[in-house]
Amino acid sequence: MLLLLAEYLEQFHSVFNVFQYLTFRGILGVLTSLVFAFVFGPIMIRKLSYYQIGQAIRDDGPKSHLSKSGTPTMGGALILGSIIISTLLWADVRNRYVWVVLLVTLAFGVVGWVDDYRKVVEKNPRGLPARWKLFWQSIAGAIAALYLYYSGVSPVETELIVPFFKDVSIGLGWFFVVLTFFVIVGTSNAVNLTDGLDGLAILPTVLVGGALGVFAYLSGNIKFAEYLHIPYLPGAGELVVISAALVGAGIGFLWFNTYPAQVFMGDVGALSLGATLGVMAVIVRQEIVLFIMGGVFVMETVSVILQVASFKLTGKRIFRMAPIHHHFELKGWAEPKIIVRFWIITVILVLVGLSTLKLR
Fold first, then answer.
1. Which of 320, 339, 322, 323 is nearest to 331 (CA)?
2. Greatest extent of the chain over all pairs of C-alpha atoms, in Å
3. Could you tell me the pLDDT band of residue 114, with boundaries at 50, 70 and 90?
């Protein structure tokens, strides 16, 4: 919104032209969401504690988690608020990609909020039944996929880009809708599965989100896109502001979520953040790179799938407990060790993902 005001004020003074630069608005986006999280974080934690909106801990999990019972949850609403406000302030609200990402983020956040509300406020241990949670996620993911397919203005917007190979792309046609659906819904649930230890999910989300912002900036600039042999996507650069807002909001939340956590993000945060990563990766045509950079999310999801499949087929478990971070807990690893090591793995994988820009 402030970009529109700056464009109007340019006629009176050229200093307002600085708001045309994506990098400048990206910096403002980081700072705005970060300050928002720092200011309203303590207020939200106090309110959640006052209304006893605390996390219920399963007694069949690691015994070290029992002490976390009652820790305020639904803190993901702080992240959502930070991202939305910062984006609306500094992004170009005339850009269709901005609204696609914001609406997907909000839609998945609402699904997560309903699930959290039923669990911690209504004291319903089932929360939102899994089939209904998946149903509403599917509706939001399908609408986004269909919109991106039909609103595309060039063939490259629906092609699958293969990293590490120069000018290798696969025309997807209608399969683009299917792929987009699974990327958005799958990433949303993958981040949710990862959100089981203090700070475990949020920093990888920040790192991957920041890297996707780099891809968005380069893809939205025709000179950089041609030089790096990546698809040129007019308007995609505006996602830099959303990426920056996510980074700022995530770091601000991590201040309160780091071990030992003062607040948990809950499904309202995990589902929405995962969906944000998914839809951004689709827009910048980097689904495969997302799979690489989000390797921790993939590992957590695969561990659950393997555990369930093995138990149903053989009656035996592969891991002591799934997702896999609980397996390491039950092996005796300290929670901070697991968290930091998963962070380190994500840093490495994000660097590998970014290397695909040049290794072609």
1. 320
2. 74
3. very high
- Mean pLDDT within 93-103: 97
Kindly report the number of other CB atoms within 10 A of residue 242's CB atom. Answer: 31
Residue 244 in 3-state DSSP?
helix
Residue entry with tokens 């801990």: 57
* Residues 311, 317 contacting (CB under 8 angstroms): yes
| Residues found in the chain | 360
- Secondary structure (3-state) at 69: coil
Cα angle vertex 184, ends 180, 187, to 5°?
130
Q: Which amino acid, 221?
A: N
- pTM value is 0.95
Per-domain residue ranges of the chain: 23-289
Give the containing element (helix H, strand E) for 91: none
Tokens of residue 314, six digits:
């053989």
Are 274 and 101 in contact by the 8 Å Cβ rule? The answer is no
Cβ burial 67-76 (10 Å sphere, 16+ → b, else e): ebeebbbbbb
Q: What is d(CA 338, CA 199) in angstroms, rounded to the nearest whole number? A: 11
Give tens-digit pLDDT for 273-327.
999 999 999 999 999 999 999 999 999 999 999 999 999 999 999 999 999 999 9
Please report which helix (H) or strand (E) contains residue 170, including its range. Answer: strand 169-171
SS3 160: strand
Low-confidence winner among 58-62, 109-113, 220-224 (lowest mean pLDDT) = 58-62
Decide: 161 and 303 in contact? Cβ < 8 Å: no
Q: In whole angstroms, give the CA distance from residue 27 to residue 18.
A: 12
The whole-angstrom distance between residue 306's C-alpha and the CA centroid of its chain comes to 24
CB count in 10 Å sphere of residue 5: 11
| Tokens of residue 200, six digits | 């475990």
- Give bridge partners of residue 72 from the DSSP assignment: 54
Cis preceding linkage at 125, omega within 30 = no
